[in-house]
């Protein structure tokens, strides 16, 4: 069932953000993997996150054992955070237009983080290619912004 | 790795619930205790702490603020402290972090959660 985006979720999805994919390894230990971009539909049914190919191999291996996954995304400016929980659908090599979009997001992120004293090169030197897109079906959203009473369900 | 434990950037914490669903939240502080242990600041991560108390395991990401080099620490839960020198030191550092970010009212330390560090992996970006 499609999820209507609330203001917080829309804000996080439309802003330069960063985040982590959460999966379980073969021992059941929670493992996080950085992603550098994403795309979504609206209303929300699926979220596609882009990650480095060398990291994706591990994620895909985890997802072959347990399809449950999470993606937590935070705005670079104010740390507003949403966690998307759901199940793995598929993965594919990132398409050229997605790569162009991800690079633009990275440039915006570098611009913002430079205001906090982190050199732009820390971000712009990232070598995105090759990258893998991992698509998940989203079931539940949580407001994960660091503050008192965080972790509330959004939908 | 020491600069990554100063609390300049929040750390992501991965846990797992009783149904096998991973969970990722953010914490303000990963505090160096000794060569084998760290303490996580427990301010508001109720869901994560429920998961940790059930499974005993977690993974945390710490980041150097100057160059974003980061590490994943695989953790095993040991104990919770709500008083004592370690708790007081963490509270002081947390107050400093809160004043830098203008969030003094919400950064109240509830407990110091002590973990053994099982494994450290450096994150290579590219």
**In angstroms, what is the radius of gyration of chain B?**
14 Å
Indicate the low-confidence ranges of chain A by residue numbers: none
Count of extended strands of chain B: 7
Give the termini separation of chain B: 19 Å
**Oligomeric category:** heterodimer
Beginning-to-end CA distance, first to last residue of chain A: 11 Å
Major pleated sheet of chain B: 7 strands, antiparallel
Portion in beta strands of chain B: 35-45%
Can you count the helices of chain A? 4
Residue-averaged pLDDT of chain A: 89
Strand content of chain A: 35-45%
Structural class of chain B: alpha+beta
- Secondary-structure-based class of chain A equals alpha+beta
What's the CATH H-level superfamily name of chain B? Electron Transport, Fmn-binding Protein, Chain A
Let me know the largest β-sheet of chain A.
8 strands, antiparallel
**What's the helical proportion of residues of chain B?**
10-25%
Strand elements of chain A, count? 8
Number of helices of chain B: 2
Biggest interface: chains and residue counts?
Answer: A-B, 38 and 39 residues
* Element-level helix/strand string of chain B: EEEEHEEHE
Strand neighbour order, sheet with most strands of chain B: 2-1-5-6-7-4-3
